Amino acid sequence: MPSSPPQSASAASPLADVTASDAALRRFLHGLPGVDAVGLEARAAALGTRSIKTTAKAYAIDLAISMIDLTTLEGADTPGKVRALSAKGVTPDPTDRGTPPVAALCVYPDMVAEARAAVAGSGVKVASVATAFPAGRAALPVRLADTRDAVAAGADEIDMVIDRGAFLAGRYLEVYEQIRAVRDVCGTARLKVIFETGELSTYDNIRRVSWLAMLAGADFVKTSTGKVAVNATPANTLLLMEAVRDFRRETGRQVGVKPAGGIRTSKDAVKYLVMVNETLGADWLSARWFRFGASSLLNDLLMQRQKLRTGNYSGPDYVTVD
Amino acid sequence: MSERLAVLKTYKLFIGGTFPRSESGRVYQVTDAKGGWLANAPLASRKDARDAVVAARKAFGGWSGATAYLRGQVLYRVAEMLEGRRGQFTAEVAAGSGLSKAKAAAEVDAAIDRWVWYAGWSDKVAQVAGGANPVAGPYFNLSTPEPTGVVAVLAPRESAFLGLVSVLAPAIVTGNTVVLVASESAPLPALSLAEVLATSDVPGGVVNVLSGRAAELGAPLAAHRDVNAIDLSGADAELARELEVAAADNLKRVLRPRPGTSWTADPGPERMLALLETKTVWHPTGSLGASGSAY
Amino acid sequence: MAHDNASAFTYAPAPESRAVVDIAPSYGLFIDGEFREAAGGKVFTTLSPATEEVLSEVAQAEAEDVDAAVRAARTAFPAWSALPGAERGKYLFRIARILQERSRELAVLETLDNGKPIRESRDADLPLVAAHFFYYAGWADKLAHAGFGPDPRPLGVAGQVIPWNFPLLMLAWKIAPALATGNTVVLKPAETTPLSALFFADVCRQAGLPRGVVNIVTGDGSTGAALVAHEGVDKVAFTGSTAVGREIARTVAGTRKKLTLELGGKGANIVFDDAPVDQAVEGIVSGIFFNQGQVCCAGSRLLVQESLHDELLDALKRRLTTLRVGDPLDKNTDVGAINSAEQLARITALARTGEAEGAERWSPACELPDSGYWFAPTLFTGVTQAHTIARDEIFGPVLSVLTFRTPDEAVAKANNTPYGLSAGIWTEKGSRILAMAARLRAGVVWANTFNKFDPTSPFGGYKESGFGREGGRHGLEAYLDV
């Protein structure tokens, strides 16, 4: 199903009036079911004990590759680096053309044009972080300008960061309106809203912010920037999945999930896919609805893929370093 | 001048805080050690036993839910009242068991002191019998003792007062309620104790006192499904076995008679512990934040 | 489901290797440190409930064999009880370590003989078994500090009869505290799950445990009855049904035998409308589908606040569709086989009664294997206190859903049973948890969690769920002369 524009979604939604005032939004978010941390983490860990072998593993590895937002977000990024990474995203394993391309390249706004050109015609999307990534500490007009730049340069997807300070201070409506404003300037680009879960401290906050972002029109909810100590974890990603599942039940609108940062091995990626499979089901098992924000993960998936194909363990010299 | 004619006491049962006669209308003769008549005691029936269980069950919620401090205060109040009636109890013990006045007085003193000893346990037993369990996981885990419920007590046949106190006080101090079957041959101290309880802030129904035949009353109590435990101190070996078999019907906790028990020895906490359940409560603790480990 | 990927992410079989366990074609009784045939020469077979394949042939102990085992235990008692506690403890530490070393082998064995998923035998049963021995090993030389007087004495010979739902774990719960306190034991495993106890006998030999300290007699109910009734037994410990527990209580009446019983239950899992709902769903699932619901403390009655009923039931049903029922040796199996044909028949009959009495039955779509004993996860809605399935212990993967409106009503319904083993409370309001916990007449109360076990944590019931506690400091009392 296509992502609907936020206006129509919220107009039809039974939740339309929860954003009528700061007080109403607070009452709604604080009325969501609480999260028991131990139970949540235990469930996430239990899903991590699934044993995915042979054909299921091959399927999962290819699916995971196709869900990667191949990311470079360094101050030292150059056009050359972005071109190289783009080439890798389009053709992850030159020795095996059957390898699927990644979902998207994820870059800073000033690299969007470079990436756009490099992936042209491949079907690989270009995602851009925006809104004064990663801290988000800039005035709203600056953050909107940042977003407009990226969209104008050809970004298919925008990964925005929320104002964590405003959220923690309880200014929920302000955060909501900022997301709406960014959503408005995204045009047809899909909007991923980054919470920086590691800075929100509690699971209750993570559930609340997920609903807040979805109410504001997020197409994706995303755990983190990859720039802080705690990024995606099985537990906080599971919590995001529960939120999008419940949101679709309430509103009919489907929202995607993107864990980002800290997912480096095939084993981990497969566990996340198991979590998608058993929490959200097949409707979310595609790059349209689930992404991995990662860089080094791809090479590990490629090595595992080679191992499955040849029966022998591969090594870092047999995948490309970019 | 002629000697004053004494006013004799009519001994009655104690059920639900009131003093009824046996519904059967029966009494039996209580004699002194030499066979002389002392009094008529009610010969309680199965129906009296049933009424007593109903009264004890009704009282259980309030008594077990009272604070341990309050139960301690109430029990201590009982000791105060007993102290004031030392003379009466000494006379009843002496007459009923054939002890010398001095020995009877010593037994009464020991019984009062034991009552005080148990009163002090009310708010300590949970600390001795319960505690935190260091489970291997992110859980707070606490075990606390709770009263078993309604306890039927066959009071010891011998040691009609010290023995009686030694089986009754440990049952009620922790919050159980009791249906007490007094010593068949020497029931008077138990029936008089009921009068003390009635005037010492003990809620009606917490202790119910029956006098009569241990076998006749023990059988319906042991088989009664709303009785949670039975103390067989006053049963002989054969009766104890029969009642234990009957008690199995609803898996009552059974305190078997221990022949040769010295009622004057330090009792330790065992009798209290035997009539307590251990409840263990788990709750997740976890961490304050959503740090969550990675796979 | 419409999506293309629906059929694609089906997990391929991930079987645990059977090769790690070597089951002999037949086993004798373990008496006085030796395996020997039953005096009467009778045997019975034990099979895999998942496939009905015969696993081995086991000796049927009769009165004469039980007598020999009790005499061996009696003979071993003076020396064993006279050992310094530290030395007894070291034997238990050895046993704990050997159990850890052999845990994969024993997990596979347990899964084969019992039908439980390897995920559970590997991640729950075996770790808890080793932990239990480790815990009580440390008590052996500290009994003077356990609160049972300065020099608490063992009772003598313990006759122990255990059930089939957690064969090795129940053995650990029985044997570890008995040995730590200086008793010797004769243990009878369940008729349908004798193998892990026989492997444990080998663990005892590897640990160098003196002869006769642990004796294992296999057989049916008559073997257990002979053991319980044997006059050389000083202590009887039983885990199993309330009906058998009642018989045992009658048997030991009037004897010197100390008795502890861990019997049935009909646990209420109470969910308030302010519960952490996702975690509550997991707790409900683990409460009734862990070990195929063959758990005495199962949360077999779901009491849900009316205002949350529909939402919770939707979430629960959705969750149940992800349960994987099938080959217990597959590492992805969540729900394995029912332990025996007899148990399956009982579950089936009670579920039929539920339907006949008008409750609404629901199960997720799941394919059950052709051979073996299987029962799909099942829930009944529209159940009231008067329904048989709300009162009788089913001991299977069947959940009865009832509703309540107020906390008082929840307590009244939860306590309205002759049992009193376990209860669950789900609410984010701390004071309500404590108030509820205080009023529930149950030996174990799980708040915002369910079916958690630990060797340090006392376990046991109120009312007809039995008496005595296993685990923790409290668990020592059952084996001491206090």
Question: How would you sum up this structure, described in words?
Answer:
Chain A is of the alpha/beta class. Chain A has helices at residues 6-12, 22-30, 37-47, 54-66, 79-90, 112-118, 140-152, 164-168, 172-186, 197-200, 203-215, 234-251, 266-279, 297-310, and strands at 68-71, 104-107, 125-130, 157-161, 190-194, 220-222, 256-258, 292-294. Chain A has an eight-stranded parallel beta sheet with strand order 7-6-5-4-3-2-1-8. In chain A, helix 3 packs across helix 12 (234-251), helix 11 runs parallel beside helix 12 (234-251) and helix 12 packs parallel to helix 13. The longest helix of chain A is centred in the C-terminal third of the chain and has 18 residues, at 234-251. Residues 1-11 of chain A have low confidence and may be disordered. Chain B is built from ten helices and ten strands. Chain B has helices at residues 46-65, 68-84, 86-97, 101-121, 125-129, 162-173, 188-198, 214-223, 237-247, 270-274, and strands spanning 27-31, 37-42, 131-132, 139-147, 150-154, 177-181, 207-210, 229-231, 253-255, 276-284. Chain C is globular and about 65 Å long. Chain A binds chain C through residues 33-36, 38-40, 42-43, 49-57, 59-60, 63, 242, 273, 277-278, 281-283, 285-286, and chain C through 1, 3-6, 8-14, 119, 123, 274-279, 282-283, 322, 331-332, 428, 448-449. Strand 10 (276-284) of chain B pairs parallel with strand 17 (444-447) of chain C, so a sheet runs across the interface.
